[in-house]
Write a structure and sequence with these properties.
The structure is a homodimer. Chain A is α/β, with parallel strands linked by helices. The first copy, chain A, is about 35% helix and about 20% strand. An eight-stranded mixed beta sheet of chain A has the order 3-2-1-4-5-6-7-8. In chain A, helix 1 packs across helix 2. Chain A is globular, with a radius of gyration of 16 Å. The model of chain A has no long low-confidence stretch (mean pLDDT about 95). At the A-B interface, helix 8 and strand 9 of A face helix 8 and strand 9 of B.
Chain lengths: ~220, ~220
């Protein structure tokens, strides 16, 4: 699949870009500045080839061009930038693209702490995005540690909760998530549940701080 | 320790009563009606003795008497009843008791769905309780399946996130949680984080529905 990572030069987006490229997807890293996107793509190709993924494909483009021919567009910008970013990209988004919202409304968006969230009007970042686009929005990857994503030597030992009101889009993203070694995709139900999943990110950040770790994640027991 | 389970005739409270009695604590099941409390205690003793815990101590009392000499008071009533219950028990609570809030503000409290929460004024059920009492409130046990708690043949394979603004009370409840076989206690930080933990319960109820299970729980990875 062709995947565009809007804001893919950031920690989370770059980590996802590496993993998806390693899994054989055509990945485009997007940035507001083409130059930064190109640099990040170059670095990604370098890291991937060091780990034996010589055929991995990572391009760098300005955000608008990055999404223009994507099957799946992943939003990995900071929350404070997400509304403006989506508004700016609306015309460029393919009609049949799936939009994956990875953003989390951490209190940092208003100068606060990363261990707390703020509540957007629609209830979650994902529903905020859905209110701006016609394409199906899927919430996913908020609880995966960027640290683990970027370390291609390790499996990403955690579950990815996937929420959407569009069942087909949800299934596609669940399959995509499981292309990352160690990840199990969990059907998180309707998009409104993203508010729970997003707040778990704040909890995980707090746990990392208290336990002096960097890659704490979640697994659900009893599903097998 | 002497533990009182307010509303201990319900699924969650009864399950916790069994586990704590099996671990050797003195357990008192409380109910609004003494008769129901006595019956539940009798049943608990029966189940415990069937599983080889002949010395387990479970008493039944009316709620007010149940809490009067408790070291730890666990609130396991439905959310719609919690404010009235705590107000009614305030004078009976020992000054040095620890209050453990297990309630979850599920939408069922207002006739809605158990897969959704409502937001109380203080942000969480636990903070609502803390606003009513002087004693330290600890949030815990919301994400443990009642089903698993009641099945003494099985380990309760999940983490219990414990949140409080009182570090000593938090430590006590973390130790208490780990008396349940299979449970690992996690320091969830301040009491305000209970809003996240409580909402995870709604997510877990939805997962149980979607996956046709009864005992789905959570584990945090990367803490070891």
């Amino acid at each position: 699949m062709r995947l565009a990572l809007v804001g893919g030069t950031g920690d989370q987006g770059f980590g996802l870009a590496l993993r998806f490229a390693a899994a054989g997807h055509e990945v485009v890293i997007g940035s507001r500045e083409e130059e930064r996107a190109l640099k990040a793509a170059e670095r990604a190709v370098e890291i991937l080839s060091e780990h034996g993924y010589e055929d991995a494909t990572v391009e760098g483009r300005e955000n608008e061009k990055a999404v223009s021919d994507a099957d799946v567009v992943l939003l990995t910008v900071p929350f404070f930038a997400v509304i403006e970013t989506v508004r700016g990209l609306r015309d460029a988004l393919p009609d049949d693209a799936i939009i994956v919202d990875v953003t989390v409304p951490l209190e940092t968006a208003i100068g606060g702490r990363p261990t707390r969230t703020i509540t957007p009007w629609e209830g979650s970042a994902a529903e905020t995005v859905q209110s701006l686009v016609e394409q199906p929005v899927v919430s996913a990857f908020e609880n995966v540690s960027a640290e683990l994503l970027r370390d291609l030597d390790r499996e990403v030992e955690c579950d990815v909760v996937v929420c959407s009101d569009d069942e087909d889009a949800k299934r596609t993203v669940m399959e995509l998530a499981e292309d990352i070694p160690g990840v199990r995709a969990i059907d998180g139900g309707p998009l409104a549940n993203a508010r729970i999943v997003e707040s778990i990110t704040a909890l995980l950040i707090g746990l990392n701080q208290r336990y002096g770790k960097k890659g704490i994640g979640i697994r659900f027991t009893g599903i097998e």
